[in-house]
Amino acid sequence: MPAEERVIERAVILSTGDELTSGLTVDTNSNWLADKLFENGIDLVAVITVGDDAERIRWAFESALDRADLVISTGGLGPTADDLTTEVLAATLGREIVFDEASAQHMRALFRSIGRDMPQNNLRQANFPAGAVILANPLGTAPGYRVEVDWKGRRRFVVVLPGVPREMKPMTENEVLPWLRGLDATGQVYLSRSFQTFGASESALDEMMGRAVAPEEGRLSFRAAFPQISVRVTVHGRPHEAEAALARLSERVRERIGDYVFGEGAATMEGVVNQLLRQRRWKLAIAESCTGGLVAERLTNVPGSSQVFAGGLVAYTPQTKQATLGVRAETLERHGAVSDEVAREMAAGARRACDADVAVSVTGVAGPDGGTAENPVGTVYVGFACDGALVSRRYKLWGTRDWIRLLASQIALDWVRRHALGRPPQESLLIRR
Amino acid sequence: MPAEERVIERAVILSTGDELTSGLTVDTNSNWLADKLFENGIDLVAVITVGDDAERIRWAFESALDRADLVISTGGLGPTADDLTTEVLAATLGREIVFDEASAQHMRALFRSIGRDMPQNNLRQANFPAGAVILANPLGTAPGYRVEVDWKGRRRFVVVLPGVPREMKPMTENEVLPWLRGLDATGQVYLSRSFQTFGASESALDEMMGRAVAPEEGRLSFRAAFPQISVRVTVHGRPHEAEAALARLSERVRERIGDYVFGEGAATMEGVVNQLLRQRRWKLAIAESCTGGLVAERLTNVPGSSQVFAGGLVAYTPQTKQATLGVRAETLERHGAVSDEVAREMAAGARRACDADVAVSVTGVAGPDGGTAENPVGTVYVGFACDGALVSRRYKLWGTRDWIRLLASQIALDWVRRHALGRPPQESLLIRR
Known about the structure:
The structure is a homodimer. Chain A is about 40% helix and about 25% strand. By secondary structure, the first copy, chain A, is of the alpha/beta class. Chain A has three domains: about 170 residues, Molybdenum Cofactor Biosythetic Enzyme, Chain A (3-Layer(aba) Sandwich); about 80 residues, Alpha-Beta Plaits (2-Layer Sandwich), CATH 3.30.70; about 150 residues, Maf protein. In chain A, the strands form four sheets. Chain A has a six-stranded mixed β-sheet with strand order 2-1-3-8-7-6, sandwiched between helices. In chain A, strands 14-13-15-16-17 form a five-stranded mixed β-sheet, with helices on both faces. A four-stranded antiparallel β-sheet of chain A has the order 10-11-9-12. In chain A, strand 6 and strand 7 form a beta hairpin. At the A-B interface, helix 2, strand 2, helix 3, strand 10 and helix 10 of A face helix 2, strand 2, helix 3, strand 10 and helix 10 of B. Strand 14 of chain A pairs antiparallel with strand 14 of chain B, so a sheet runs across the interface.
């Protein structure tokens, strides 16, 4: 942290709603906001969640204002009587409630656009504490707002947003974060860049990075979203210097863990594979046994995948492996369905059946049953076929059935990615239990 | 609420961890615990989340003890120096910390079982505030505990659990909930039963239920986990009467919305289908276009699905539909790939190719592109083939690509379920946007 004083150093997030305290809904807003605050160097003191109850909301606002410069509230802005945020906040701050005609107009127009009359109680959503700056909500009826207050002699800011994630998130991106950055009188910015990795565990990546990023240069953080781990570099400083520092540190990250990086930002393995196949003008075929359609499902989850996906065959039984993929009875008998040989014949068969450029296959034991001494649960073979090559490799995976399937599907997609980049497949995973 | 006084009426959940306040991890523990408290009739006053910081944890404990009879804390029980829960709680309560040799023995045994020596710092996990009742953690090194305290003249209980969900949940089920129920001096119990439904929206189900359950008889609650909605009935009273009331109300639920119920408790559509196929000794084949393998992936996500799943064919292109499913070029040309006719030929082709008893097929437009005037995005045809029948039906779905695919996969599985039960497929969904 630099010595210059910042207007906002500490924040509290306040989530309101009976659906949260009764266990009906998982609060994902707070996590998303926590991440944004972290990226902007703001220390999150606490998240407080309360139901739709005036006394509890008031306690939460008071506790938050006592402890932080910034309070971000989500929820409780709906049109019904149990939506109390504005009423309680105004009372807490000792401010009047004022009605905003422009917001009411916007709501009426929104209702007209879907051919309905606006119910009278929606007008409550045009109420704001006096002095509030209204934040537009293009996707819903409830606008948000922010209000600057003097709380026991200290300067505080309260930001009030709707609880619906698809409304709250763009409002935060478009209205709140730019304002927050503008408030920072130090002229300093926080910049960050994320790398998506697969194949090494968090602790393995941490070890590889070693002391490559000194604490005074920036911050490395890891976020695991099985089976991929993102590595984020965050720097802080004056804009020009921060950009240079980010470029420098990003290069160091790539030097150390580059082989595990498959994309940046919000990249997914299936998205990257889709893009590479499109660039190469290749059509992919997929043959699956233990993953049961998961590889195909993931690839086709990307819009426009029909341009790169020839077809998939899920062959769960020896009969189907023979009938749909042309795996030979003799191969199945001699080597078993979970083997290098069958993985290769599955890939070759899928490529032939779907008339594809490249094909990938997966056969293995996802468990919980079906393991043998030779092929215990977690044994997975990946096969790959293209013009002039037919290869396979054995992997020893672990975990629950879900995990093994997901990990196997990721390895299969990574093979396609690496082949498209002219790189060999990963020999084994640096992922420890 | 009955007039008898209960020992625990109000609770606060306290979640600790820098991974929560920096946005790295979504706090799913609190939602799970909130649901358990709700089921047991305990009013959740607040959830407070703070990072690994002694002053903040202390503030959270104090706020919680001021406001509730029961405080449930998760996280901060690890072996490292930033795990502060026990230390801070003991200081807050003014209790000494005592070392429990039996817990240390258990940890050493756990490490021995995986062939490793226990690091010295794990011994911290055998520290407890004086007077704590230790709660066994069969799945990890950190035991939990509960402690009864006098807080400003009021009787309070603090339950401390590890933050790892797979350790926290069984400890709650096995140690905390039975103790909580035993504490209830009124002799009354909370009982509940959940019904899993598909095909009607929350508001449609609510309308169908009408006033069938009066507030004094019990409570109905809906939980949407797209595309299924669970309906829970909760009753409260002396054990014998509560059981009778639950049976009576459950019957009313079945009367009103029975056609949409596909299972109870934690049932999933794929699990129910798997079980029915097993009972009938049928093998299922699946032909997919727009769902891209999702139907097969879901069915095979159930352990033991190899006994009921013959195989799946994901045919994304007209060529693959012809080559792997035997759909006729003429049919494709005359009716288009998204049509009743092609859905039927896909189902028949999959059944033949995989030598299956029954087959289901899906073809449609998941979007965001590919819609036409005749078949806009969201148009999905489901086909079904069995001995003596070959049928199909058109559905008009909506939403994002993900939603359309998930909804279509659910309809396809529901067709198989309904066929196995000798019931006709649903004509259309009672789900509004």
